Amino acid sequence: MSDFYQNGIITNFHNLTRRPVEALEADLVRFARKRPMSLILPSLFSELEGPALDNIVNCLAKVPYLSEIVIGLDRADREQFLFAREFFSRLPQHHRILWNDGPRLRALDAELEAEGLSPQEPGKGRNVWYCSGYVLASARAEAVALHDCDIVTYDREMLARLIYPVANPQFNYEFCKGYYSRIAEGKLNGRVSRLLVTPMIRALKKIYGPLPYLEYLDSYRYPLSGEFSMRVDVLNDIRIPSDWGLEIGVLSEVHRNYSTKRLCQVDIADAYDHKHQCLIDKEAEKRGGLDRMSLDIAKAIYRKLATLGVQISAESFRTIKATYYRIALDIIETYYNDAVMNGLKVDRHSEEQAVELFAQNLMEAGRIFLDNPHDKPFIPSWSRVQAAIPDLQERMHAAVEEDNLGNV
């Protein structure tokens, strides 16, 4: 059972009573009459072949309050898309698959590219962005949740708790972030959040002072979770990165657009496990694994600080690295002691290897940040797309209908 602590920056919803999921869902069914709800599932085709997504779909088939489920499907050819249509057909809710590699959506992407509005990098950010545009176009929901498709510990309560704060018409929250402990097979996981983000934020606070943005980020218990929910109007104006900085980018955007009184986080699971990234993906042609992730996250935070008027120079990054490294080593000790008391395993050698890599990447991310002053890291907001191509969302909706109901 979690504590009931409120840190005063954003509201924290705890799991104090282990309220049955049936009771939560009964409330959500009532809420749906005034505030209909959608779910976005960004997915690779490969995830349809694993056990996690099969269980997720079986769980979702029992959810009574969703008006719509939108699946973004990446890396799928025609036969794989047809397989996906059959795979998701067991869902009783209205559902649509965005075949992002199909000719209809590719044609729309080319149109956006001609206007300089298309996402520049493939990946989760691009997938989520297109799904967000479709949710806005379909106009079936006023609240929307998003979670990953590789959660091996998934159950219905996770979604119910995630969407509850933004679905309740008596609450005034615009955005909600899910959090949980990262424990699996007797080990403490979540290395990037524990060993990069937290010590990096605290290093920056030590160097630049307690900036409101840094205090805000530090208030999230799991800033890198892929599970969040929001009112649909939020989707229209946020600009998100297309790389691994997606989660930090979303947090930065809602902080820019809304009072912290309208933002919250919720405990959605006692334990959570999904596909694990290796520290360095030696087989990838480009940088991958936690190596690439840490680089993109650091760049996202540097960019945000720059927009707040923080002066960052080449010399600054050496100070950031040194301060981060000392704080991160202390945090390793803290987490190790916590794990031992709870009978969990932590490989201190691999933890220190991760911190050494992350420290180098703080410098590398700084170099990239300074060397690319004209970089455009964000996907344009949907409000900008609407201004440039007023009928694009309508045509996207029609293209998705044709892909899902017609011949492909």
UniProtKB/TrEMBL annotation:
Gene3D superfamilies recorded: Spore Coat Polysaccharide Biosynthesis Protein SpsA, Chain A
Q: What are the record keywords, sorted?
A: Transferase
Molecular function GO terms recorded:
transferase activity
Lineage top rank: taxon: Bacteria
Is Transferase one of the keywords UniProt gives this record?
Answer: yes
Record-linked InterPro entries: Nucleotide-diphossugar_trans
Q: Any idea what this protein is called? A: Glycosyl transferase
